[in-house]
Amino acid sequence: MNLVRLVNQHIRPYAGMVAAVILLQVLAAAASLYLPTLNARIIDHGVMEQDIPFIWRNGAIMLGVAAVQAIAQISAANLGARIAMGLGADLRARIFGRVLSFSTRELNTFGAPSLITRSTNDVQQVQQLVLMSLIMMVSAPITMAGGVFMALREDVQLSWVILMAVLSLAVILGFLIALVIPLFGAQQTRIDTLNRVVREQITGIRVVRAFARERHEAARLDQANTDLRWVGLRIGRIMSLLFPVLFVVMNVSSVAVMWFARTRIDAGHLQIGQLTAFMVYLVQILMSVMMSTMMVFMAPRAMVSSNRIREVLDTDSSVIPPSHGISQLPDPGHVRFEDVTFTYPGAEVPVLHEVSFDLLPGQTTAIIGATGAGKSTLVNLVPRLFDATSGQITIGGVNIREIDPDTLWASVGLVPQRPYLFSGTVASNLRHGDPDATDEQMWEALRIAQAEDFVRDMEGRLEAPISQGGTNVSGGQRQRLSIARALIKKPAIYVFDDSFSALDVATDARLRASLEPVTRDASVLIVGQRVSTIRHADQILVLDDGRIVGRGTHEELLDGCPTYQEIVDSQLSAEEAAA
Known about the structure:
The chain is elongated and about 120 Å long. It has 579 residues and is an alpha/beta fold. The strands form three sheets. The chain has a six-stranded mixed beta sheet, with helices on both faces. Strands 2-1-4-5 form a four-stranded antiparallel beta sheet, covered by helices on one side. A two-stranded antiparallel sheet has the order 7-8.
């Protein structure tokens, strides 16, 4: 069972603490079972016989036993909480580490909202079950079995009341459990849906406002919220029956005990203290059944959550790192695509068809083509965010599948199509490229990326705050900060995936001029939509439906590539194209 396997794998470091919790729970249960017997002695021998010293002695013993019980329970709860919290932290760390190893394919399969739910809410459900198990599942069986034994010591002939009470409670609670189990899976799925809708609305708030879709999005959120609410209400209504059922059975059983015990008391076969102890044991037994039932209620939801967690932990990345990766590359700037074909999972047609070209140090290669031609897919193959379906990509003559991932990523400075900044400061974002970068190095990178002026105008300059995703700066500023982050890394291969699209023509030109001396010894791959951005590249590749239909300089393609000519004609005048 996934739940048991998951817990066993991650609770082993806490084996000593678990043993201590079990011992403390046994001690607490033994103390709770001994207290009613002491109370019966005080009533039957102390109160009834007016033996004050006997009452004081046994009262002191009761206080001592109660203190032991309280200390044991508090200590067990404290240790149980530490174990459960540690288990939760370990699970979240494992899930996060696994997600970091995923390629873009696995990330798209699960989806960000579901991964967030699995690493938070699902872990919390397993964590809560472990905590309640450590607190209840040890003491409940001991209390139940011990309560039955101790109750029979007081009076055997009333044992049938216990049997009927336990059976009645078990049947009713079993019926409630059967009703609630299917609802837990639906609840987790609807939490995923709510997370997805909220995340979409927060991320796309500008689009929502631009198209006046606030009411539509509010209706979507209301629907997702309502679906989750109704599932929660159905679960809550069923769960709300637990305590009423318990109290009904408990009170009916107590009345039955007193009703049938009256004749035994009259006959002198049962004393008042024994009857009191018997009723306390009956309550303890029923409470133990109730606690066990609550655990059974929690288990199905935790099982659903554990299955979802295991799906993440058992999913291997489609980009498999080599067992003994190469960490030294003879020529880290030389990239070669050899008949590379790539097909997305489930797609019938490849996105890239037998693409072959070379990136050489000191050379700028540009890729241009219509939307959907496969440009971004191609550049994502260089840092191995995907693996090619067929063909191979080499760096310095070594297949990238054989290169140590850290070495590969250290060789590539990627500026993605959608630049992303992390919450923090300008400096903390730039230091993603080089954790040891000095202020002078950061200012130099900002100057080259044409970001120095606006950073100096920000309050705090390098320590100016950046919100999650960089939403407190403009799109062009995000692009320039992302470019500066890549420059600080000083890689052998620069990959700019349409990284100049938010810049005006003048800033674009200044940035490209500043980049030339810095990237002179590196290989540069630029994906562009504007001809003005890529026209001065040493080599331009024209992509159409995943195939290279043109290769050469700007002038060569103007003379011999109809697809390139159409792109140029749609953007530049005849004089600009010839310039």
